[in-house]
Amino acid sequence: MGKFKSGFVTLIGRPNVGKSTLMNTLVGQKIAITSNKPQTTRNRIQTVYTCADGQIIFLDTPGIHKAKNKLGEYMVSVAERTLKEVDVILWLVEPSTFIGAGEQHIAECVAKANIPVILVINKIDTVNKAEILKFIDAYKDVASFAEIIPVSALNGENTDDLVNTIIRYLPQGPCYYDEDTITDQPERQIVAEMIREKTLRNLNDEVPHGIAVAIERMRERTKGNIIDIDATIICERNSHKGIIIGKQGSMLKKIGTEARKDIESLLACKTNLKIWVKVKKDWRNSDMLIKNFGYNKNDIDL
Questions:
Q1: Contact 139, 119 (CB under 8 A)
Q2: Which of 149, 167, 158, 187 is CA-nearest to residue 57?
Q3: CA quadruple 151, 156, 158, 164: dihedral sign
Q4: Quick one: angle between helices 159-169 and 19-27, nearest 10?
Q5: Is the pLDDT of residue 32 over 80?
Q6: Residue 275, CB-side half-sphere exposure with 13 Å CA sphere
Q7: Quick check: 144 pLDDT over 70?
Q8: pLDDT tens-digit readout, 8-30
Q9: In 200-263, at which residue ranges do the beta strands (DSSP E only) sit?
């Protein structure tokens, strides 16, 4: 048996290319939230994959994009800083021969990093297999890639090959986490992200990603296997508050029901979830509020 390998791997790519879906597929449990809206992932989510040959610690970063406000600046700086801290970079792209400004910006970032870059062409379940060579050909000269691997994060196609390839590029090292660890995220943070995911998924584009979720209380009852969770969805406008609550509370109830299922699966016990909605105007441009909602301001001091 070869030497055990371990190291840190980051997933980068434009918003919406399937980074969180890929990480969830590889780790086999829902950790990163997914939605079809951009900027779903706000913090670096650290998940752990362990097998007989090695341990991969994934850092899922916010998508690299042009920042529009303080939260946006924070997210981009976290993503770019992560590139300097890892052993391997996974760059996810969609199956396309068009290479836009977003990809060019990422190519510049990875060129500076001087770390093995594996290009992952995701969503191959959506295209004809004969076309995949065209996409590989279009991308092969964009950056100096160690490998190019087509996968489908959604159905797991080729993900075993991806894991084996990542381990090949990792240095020999220790098992940083127990083999049954899948994330270093505090439970409260994952619970907040699960509620935010359901809110994003259920709402139309009228409520953009200007929402945050704060967990006010999370307490296990002394009798019975039940956890009480009080959460608040924070939005930027009164009109958004009405949409989130819905007619006679119907939307909020739907969000709560869907989130509770995921939370119960995560915590392996019954959950009594109560959600409120509050308006905090322009919270995405307030340093104090960004910190309150779990985003560490120190992370932007590059």
A1: yes
A2: 167
A3: positive
A4: 90
A5: no
A6: 29
A7: yes
A8: 888 888 777 888 788 878 876 54
A9: 212-220, 226-235
Distance CA 26, CA 293 (A): 28
- Cβ(255)–Cβ(23) under 8 Å? no
Please tell me whether residue 32 adopts helix, strand or coil conformation.
coil
Residues 95/101/104/110 CA torsion (nearest 10 deg)? -90
Per the CB < 8 A criterion, the answer to whether 59 and 82 are in contact is yes
**Phi, psi of 141, rounded to the nearest 5 degrees:** -100, 5
Is residue 154 within 8 Å of residue 21, measured between CB atoms?
yes
**pTM of the entire structure?**
0.57
Provide, for the chain, the percentages of residues in helix, strand and coil under a 3-state DSSP scheme, each rounded to the nearest 5.
40, 25, 40
**pLDDT tens readout for residues 209-236:** 578 888 877 787 777 778 888 898 888 8
In 3D space, the residue among 288, 219, 295, 229 whose CA is nearest the CA of residue 260 turns out to be 229
Question: Cα separation of 92 and 17, whole Å?
Answer: 6
123 alpha carbon, distance to own chain's centre: 17
Residue 215 in contact with residue 191, Cβ under 8 Å? yes
Task: Give the strands of the sheet with 226-235, arranged side by side.
Answer: 212-220, 226-235, 270-279
Query: What b/e string do you get for 287-302 counting C-beta neighbours within 10 Å, with b at 16 or more?
Result: eebbeebbbeeeebee
Helical residues (DSSP H) of 170-237, grouped into ranges = 187-202
User: What is the token pair recorded at 152?
Assistant: 């489908």
Cβ contact 14:102 at 8 Å: yes
> Tokens standing for 301?
């001091």
Cα gap 265→202, rounded to integer Å: 20
The helix (H) or strand (E) run that includes residue 148 is: strand 147-150
Strand-pair category, 117-121 with 147-150: parallel
Residue 6's closest CA among 49, 46, 54? Answer: 54
